[in-house]
Amino acid sequence: MFDSGVCGTLFRQRHFPPGHVVVLFVGLSILYLLVILQMFQTTSKHSIEINRLVREQIQREYRPEKVTNTTPETLPEEAHGGPTQTVSKSTLAPTKVPYYDVTPPNLAKITTLTQDLELLLSEPVINPHNFNYVHNPDDVCKKQKAKLLIVTPSAPANVKKRTQVRKIIHKLLNGTSLYKDVVHLFFLGSPNGRCTSQNASQIIEKEVKKYNDIVQEDFLEFYGNIRYKAVSMLKWASTFCYNASYVLRIDDDVTANLSQAIASLRTFGCYHEDFILGKALEGCKPMRKRHVKYFISKEEYPHSLYPTFALGGLLGYPLSTVRLLYEASLRVKPIWLDDVYITGICRTKLNISLFTQKEFVFDHINDGSLVPLS
Ligand SMILES: *[C@@H]1O[C@H](CO)[C@@H](O)[C@H](O)[C@H]1NC(C)=O
Ligand SMILES: *[C@@H]1O[C@H](CO)[C@@H](O)[C@H](O)[C@H]1NC(C)=O
Ligand SMILES: *[C@@H]1O[C@H](CO)[C@@H](O)[C@H](O)[C@H]1NC(C)=O
Ligand SMILES: *[C@@H]1O[C@H](CO)[C@@H](O)[C@H](O)[C@H]1NC(C)=O
Ligand SMILES: *[C@@H]1O[C@H](CO)[C@@H](O)[C@H](O)[C@H]1NC(C)=O
Question: By CB atoms within 10 Å of each CB, which of 35, 67, 72, 281 scores lowest?
C-alpha cells in the first residue's frame, strides 16, 4: 500500500571520435537540442494542465458527500460529471426502523469502563452517523441468536461478487452445526450512478427479497465515503446485534481461509477482552502527493506518521471492541482513510491492542474470477 519506488539509471561509456565526425556530431547535437527544447515547452504546458485536471478530479472524487436526508428522488451528480440518475421513491424509502428508534445497551454492561474510557465517552459527538436505512434486516441477529456476525462491505454494483461470497459463506455455514449461530450481512451505500446501471436499486431489491442479507444506508457509495461504510458496520453491529460475541469483517475481494479466521478469533477471545485481529501495518507515512490514491492533506492529518493500523480487508474483534470503536468514531476528529482512522487513530484513543494473526493475513483478488474465500 505504501511502497516507495526505487529508481535506477543506466550509463554507457563512450569513446571520443575523430575530428570531422566531432563537427558533425556537435552540429547535430545543437539541432537536436533545439528540437527537444521546443518539445519540452509544449509538453510541460501539457503536463501542468494534466496535473491540474488530475488534482481537481481527485479533490472532487475523494471529498465525502452525503445524499440529502429527505428521501432523494435524484441523486447528486457524480464525480465525472455524467448524467444525473433518477431513482424511484419506493426503492430508496427508509425502512420502518430509523436509526434513532433503537438504543444499544449501556456500555458498562458489555465492557469494563476505565477512567480514561469514561473521559473519552464524555467528549461531545462531532461526527454523528445519522444516515437513514434504505434496507435494514434489523431482526436477523435476534432471530438466529447470532454469536458471530460476519460483515462484508460491498458496492451496490458488485452483484456478482456478492453472489460469489454468498455461495462460499453459505456453503461454509451450512456444512456444520458449528456455525448455526453465525449471521452474514453485506453493507451498501446508495448507488452513485457512475459505476452502476440504472437497475442497481431494483437488483438490490431482489437480493433483499431473496436473501434478506443487505444493510443499505443512504450515503453515496464512492471511494471518498469509505469511512461512512466502516462506521455503518460498527453501528449496525452495536445496535442490532449486541448479543453477539464477535464481529468478523471480510471484504468481497479477498482470499482467506474463513474457518481458520473464525477459529482464531474465538480462541483469542477466550483470553482477551478488547482487541483487534488483522494484518497490522506499522510506521506508515501519510501520502502527501496530490495525485496518489491515498493522498491526505496536512490540514486533514498534520502528523508525519500514522499510528499502527490494520488493513480493512479482514478483521476480527469482540462486540465490545466494535461498540467502543463506534463510540470513538463519533467523537474523534476523522480522516477519510477508514483503516487508518478506525483501527489506527480510534483504536489508539481507546488503548485497544492490535494483533497480527497469520489467519488474518489475506490476499486481494483482482479479476473477480477466483474463488475469494474458503
Ligand atoms: C439480546 O438478548 C436479550 C436477552 O436474551 C433479548 O431480550 C434481546 O431481544 C436480544 N437482542 C438482540 C438484538 O438479539
Ligand atoms: C443448507 O443445506 C440445506 C440442506 O442441505 C438446504 O436445504 C439449505 O437451503 C441450505 N442453506 C443455505 C443457506 O445454503
Ligand atoms: C434493467 O433490467 C431489465 C430487466 O429487469 C433489463 O431488460 C434492462 O436491460 C435493464 N437495464 C439496464 C440499464 O441495465
Ligand atoms: C481452511 O482451513 C480448514 C481448517 O484448518 C481446512 O480444513 C481447510 O482445508 C482449509 N481450506 C483451504 C481451502 O485451505
Ligand atoms: C492502556 O493500557 C495499559 C495496559 O492495559 C495501561 O497500563 C495504560 O494505563 C492504559 N492507558 C490509557 C491511556 O488508557
Answer: 35
pTM of the model: 0.74
- Domain assignment present for 187: yes
Residue 213 lies in a domain: yes
Closest C-alpha residue for ligand 4 atom 1: 257
User: Is the CB of 351 within 6 Å of ligand 5?
Assistant: yes
Ligand 5 pocket test, candidate residues 275, 321, 332, 351, most atoms within 8 A of CB = 351
Predicted confidence at residue 196, as pLDDT, reads 53
How high is the pLDDT of residue 286? 95
Q: How far is CA 259 from CA 125, 166, 175, 177, 300, in A?
A: 37, 15, 11, 13, 38
Q: In this structure, are residues 179 and 172 in contact, taking their beta carbons and an 8 Å threshold? A: yes
Which ligand lies nearest to the CA atom of residue 264 in the structure?
A: 4
CA–CA separation, 121 and 106 (whole Å): 12
Ligand 1 atom nearest 244 alpha carbon: 14
In a domain, 59, yes or no: no
The domain that contains 279 carries what CATH number? 3.90.550
pLDDT at position 301, please?
96
Mutate to test the pocket of ligand 1, among 141, 147, 243 (most ligand atoms within 8 A of CB): 243
Confirm or reject: Cβ of 259 under 6 Å from ligand 4.
yes
Find, among 231, 241, 218, the residue nearest to 330 by Cα: 231
Average pLDDT, 10 consecutive residues per value, the chain (374 residues): 28 44 62 61 50 44 40 30 32 42 73 86 94 95 96 93 93 82 96 67 94 95 92 96 96 91 95 95 94 92 97 95 96 96 97 95 65 40
> Is there a domain that residue 174 lies in?
yes
> Looking at ligand 5, which residue's alpha carbon is closest to its atom 1?
351
